[in-house]
Structures are given as structure tokens and as C-alpha cells.
Amino acid sequence: xxxxxxxxxxxxxxxxxxxxxWLGMRVDTVHQRGKRAPYGxxxxxxxxxxxxxxxxxxxLLLQQFRYPTQEYSWELPMGAMDDGExxxxxxxxxxxxxxxxxxxxxxxxxRFRPVPALTPQAATVFEARVATMPDTTMVPPDEDEIVxxxxxxPTGLRAMLSAGEITDGFTxxxxxxxxxxxxx
Length: 184
Known about the structure:
- The chain is an alpha+beta fold.
- It has 2 domains: 2-44, no CATH class; 47-182, Nucleoside Triphosphate Pyrophosphohydrolase (Alpha-Beta Complex).
- 22% of the residues lie in helices and 41% in strands.
- The chain has 4 helices and 10 strands, in the order H-E-E-E-E-E-E-E-H-E-E-E-H-H.
- It has helices spanning 2-5, 87-99, 154-162, 169-182; strands spanning 10-19, 23-32, 35-44, 47-53, 59-66, 71-75, 78-80, 105-112, 123-129, 146-152.
- The strands form 3 sheets. Strands 7-4-9-8 form a 4-stranded mixed beta sheet, with helices on both faces.
- The longest helix has 14 residues, at 169-182.
- The termini are far apart.
- The mean pLDDT is 90.
């Protein structure tokens, strides 16, 4: 196992095989452990995840239908950063686009790499303080993607997590950072 600890992987060449507005896929030829091998890499923009927290500690979750899984998913507001955009600006923009709310304050609470073996993408997590939660009977402003939303207490959130009702990896990692950094 010690042979792999300091084993660099050197890129010999790279070929873009697919690209759309959300991602690109390239196949690199790498030199690893004395051999040439293909290595697939997904290029995605860095992203932000926003955890909306009200004064009563309720957290806002959004419900979306996800085509690849053919399932509805409870998630936090999130999105990709535009070129040249700084994470806090992106967090405020995505939060307002997906909820119609303006945050009183936004602060970064952590950063992670969702799938480091597949993509160099990084995700920055923000806690957004809001004065009140939106009326959850109203249609969310980002109606193309978001089909519903709900404000939930920390106890209710823990129950959803325990029941496996939250399956989105970005949301799970972000909530773990929230629980560790904010004792919610």
C-alpha cells in the first residue's frame, strides 16, 4: 500500500468528448504507476449551497423532481457560480432566485469537494439568516425546477434525515457542516 502514497498521476493528453451548459466531460490519458491509462473527468462549475435559517431556527428545504433518478428530492437552495462570480455573490443570487427572499446576512460555514475522484468541482456552503420563512402554500419563484418547499425545525430535519427522506449529497454534506459549526 505504501507504493500508492506518493504516486503522482501525470496527464499526457486531454480530449473533450462532451460539453453542454452544465458540464463537460474529458478523457485524459495519464501516466500512473508506470503505465498509460484513460481517466474520465467531469468539468463542472464550482457551486454554492445556501442553508436558510429563520430566527426560530427553522430551515427551508426545496422539493425538486430530478430526472436522472425519477424521484422527488428535498434539497437546499444551490447553484453554479458564473464565471468571475465570488461565492458570496452567487449564494445571495441563487438564494433569491430560488426562494424570492433576500437574506439578512450570509456567511460561509465550510467548503467541500462533492466527488474528488470524478470532478475538480468545489462547493461552498453558506448559512443565510432570514427574517421569516416564505408562505409554503405559494408556488416557488423558480417554477421550472422547484415544485414545493417547506420550513422545518431542527427536530423535524433530524427525523427526515433518520428516515432517509433527504438523499441529495450536496444537501447532506451541507447539513453536516451546519450541525458541526452552528450546533443547530
